User: What shape does this take?
Amino acid sequence: MGWDDAMAGRYANPTLSTVRPDSVQLVRLAFNKLLTRIDGDSSPYEEIVIPHELVIRESTSGHPHPGKPDDGA
Assistant: This one.
């Protein structure tokens, strides 16, 4: 099981299932949080959930999905 949908996971044998985060939003939120900390914000840490997608590939299904193309991303 991978994280961030690294391209290598699509070519591994078996292909690697992964969690694909919304990378743009992830970077945007992290950058904004960093800026607020630099500006002196000392509020408690908070849990933030960003949009993500589970991409099922051979590593978790046990077999290829005939007729179903890879996610193509």
